[in-house]
Amino acid sequence: MIAAPPTQPAETARYGAGEQPRRRALLLAIILHILIGLVVVYQKREPIAKMGEEGLKTFNVAPEGPKGSQTDKTEQKQEKKQTKQAASQDVPVPTETPPPPPDTPPPVVRDFQMPFLQLNSQDYAASNIGKQPSQRPAAGPSLAQGDSKGTYGPGSGPGGATLYPADWYREPTDAELGGYLKPDMPRAGWGMIACKTIAQYHVDDCYIMGESPRGSGFARSVLNASWQFLVMPPRINGKTQVGTWVSIRITYYDGSIKSASGG
Fold first, then answer.
1. What does the DSSP assignment read for 190-251?
2. Residues with Cβ < 8 Å from 150, sequence gap 6 or more?
3. Which residues are paired to 249 by β-bridges?
4. Which among 124, 131, 133, 218 could bridge 191 via Cys, Cβ 3.0 to 4.6 Å?
5. Domain 147-261 belongs to what topology?
6. How does pLDDT run along the chain (263 residues), one tens digit per residue?
């Protein structure tokens, strides 16, 4: 009878069965650590090699698609606007110069021609009042010879004053009277005015009494020339009375010849 081989104890069988998984786990852990170390070493060395070989690279990180193109267009428009604004600020704005005023022609000066009288140097000399010789009568008995008589009677002057015919201290000349005649006046006629005598043989406060032909303008011409008249004041009781009223009549012949009288 053959004897049976001795059997291993149960504990030894259990130990062998548990030792194999442990070895496998340890082996896997070692392999994992080796792989991790290789990855770390590779990551550290790989960028240095690439930078040395290829150098730096640039990348376009702009978003792709229609949104990116719209953004580019918007930015381009903004840049154009900013450029235009900067250019408009740099360029000075031209100021409008007002147009020069239109040239106004100088006023036309018409030659005024005297339509009345052609006077020579003798006529002008005769019209100078300052060079006329004094015709004042000498003081004495001759001054009291006869009183002036009223032409139109009491009450014919302003306010009922007596109106006396004028006695010329110096009779007016053609030059003094002709300057107040108008070209459309009749060739002949007369004008009459009444004036108040004042100092230095002058007259004042004159007014029109009548004329012929009526509406001819002769009385107005005499009135305008009256500032040149020199008249002796009327005498009353042998004494001259300054302030009394006198009548003056000027008669025209052929538009130039005159006859001055005291009414």
1. EEEEEEEE-GGG-EEEEEEEEEESTTSSHHHHHHHHGGG-EEEPPEETTEE-TT-EEEEEEE
2. 156, 162, 163, 164
3. 192, 261
4. 218
5. 3.30.1150
6. 455 555 555 555 555 556 788 888 889 999 998 999 888 887 766 555 455 455 555 555 555 555 555 666 777 777 777 777 766 665 566 677 777 777 777 765 555 444 445 555 655 555 554 555 544 444 333 434 555 665 555 556 788 888 999 999 999 998 899 889 988 999 899 999 999 999 999 999 999 999 999 999 999 999 999 999 999 999 988 899 999 999 999 999 875 656 677 66
Bin 147: left if φ > 0, else alpha if -120 < ψ < 50, else beta.
beta
Question: Which amino acid belongs to residue 177?
Answer: L
**Domain-by-domain residue ranges, the chain?**
147-261
Residue 52 CA to residue 48 CA, distance in Å, equals: 6
Q: How far, CA to CA in Å, does 158 sit from each of 140, 195, 209, 243?
A: 32, 10, 11, 12
- Contact in structure between 116 and 256 (CB atoms under 8 Å): yes
> Residue 203 in contact with residue 197, Cβ under 8 Å?
yes
Question: Residue 33 and residue 40: Cα distance in Å, rounded?
Answer: 11
Q: Which two tokens stand for residue 16?
A: 């062998």
Residue 187 DSSP symbol: S
Which residue bears the tokens 């009749």? 186
- Spatial distance between the Cα atoms of 4 and 42, rounded to a whole number of angstroms: 60
Structure token pair of residue 67? 């949104």
The model carries a pTM of 0.45
